[in-house]
Amino acid sequence: TQQGPYEGAFLYTRNKDDYDTNSGLRSKADAAAKKAGLEPSQFCAIDNACPTTGVTQAGASKDDLSKEKLEWADVFDLAEWFRPGTTAKKADFDPNKM
Question: For position 76, what pLDDT does the model report?
Answer without folding.
Answer: 78
